[in-house]
Amino acid sequence: MRPNILVAIICISVITLCISCSSVFLGANAEPTTAILGAFHKEVMMLEEQLTDKQQQQIEGMRFVTGKLKGKSVVVAWTGIGKVNAAMTTTLLIEHFRPSEIIFSGIAGGVNPKLAPGDIVIAAETAHHDMGILQEDGFYNRGVINPLDGFRNPVFLPADKRLLKLAEKAAEQVELEKIKTTVGERSPKIIKGIIVTGDVFVASPAKCKELRDMLNADAVEMEGAAVAQICYQRRIPHLVVRSISDKADKTARMDSMMFQEMAAKNSAALIAKITELLSSDLPVEKATKK
Ligand code: ADE
């Protein structure tokens, strides 16, 4: 082989090695990313609009937007409605972005009679309300076996303690718009509570009573516990935040149309504040079993 060809081969090999080493090196040192999910576009639109260094990509047909929110690296996506869509998007997101935590933002039906449209529930726990055993004497909520470790999941999936604390701090600091009612204006309430999830839009006072009696639910929606279950099984810290769009009663469908924008905005405002606090916060703890 002529010496100049040999030199060229060596140069190309060294350059290739440098490029692969630098990508491994950069990957190892990349800033941890926080994933922010919503079920439909309106639920994450307000957060997406605030991103800087915004970049979009399609993975398996789903759209993921990366960028910086309040100085923090985030990836934002909407999952589609229901537990299967939420699980599909969450899994894709985990495999491609390896987020350090996952936060879900959106709207919900209020089951706790003290809640009204615009109020916010920070889920200390989420539960599937449609997962369990149906016997002759009634329905019993029960978690499924986690295929990753063979242990049964709890009915109530706990939120990450650190994210919960940050959310409570954010709740004290966030400025939400006042809600106009027929008798004047009121400030939205923010509570820590239980959010239940099922593949059904609830517009039934009887179902509301059942969810309250059986699971002590404050709000009902269609994705939270699916995301929480994946995070629990994969040991990824998570948090679900929902703002009330309706009271899951006879007028729920109409109310949800009317109040979804305001509710989505309130939930997104709290998420933005949580993200801001995340940048200046304690080190990440792994999600723990209860
Ligand atoms: N999301 C918003 N309102 C809801 C309801 N009433 N039931 C289920 N999911 C909801």
Report what the structure shows.
- The structure is a single chain.
- By secondary structure, this protein is of the alpha/beta class.
- The protein folds into 2 domains: 1-30; 99-277, Nucleoside phosphorylase domain (Rossmann fold, 3-Layer(aba) Sandwich), CATH 3.40.50.
- The chain is built from 7 helices and 14 strands.
- The protein has helices spanning 3-29, 41-48, 83-97, 161-173, 205-215, 224-234, 252-278; strands at residues 34-38, 52-59, 62-69, 72-78, 101-110, 120-128, 132-135, 138-141, 157-158, 179-181, 184-186, 190-197, 219-221, 238-246.
- The protein has a 5-stranded mixed barrel with strand order 5-13-12-6-14. The chain has a two-stranded antiparallel sheet with strand order 7-8. The chain has a two-stranded antiparallel sheet with strand order 10-11.
- Helix 2 (41-48) packs parallel to helix 7 (252-278), helix 3 runs parallel beside helix 6 and helix 4 (161-173) packs across helix 7 (252-278).
- The longest helix has 27 residues, at 3-29.
- Bound molecules: adenine.
- Residues 107-109, 201-203, 220-222, 245-246, 248, 252, 256 line the site of adenine.
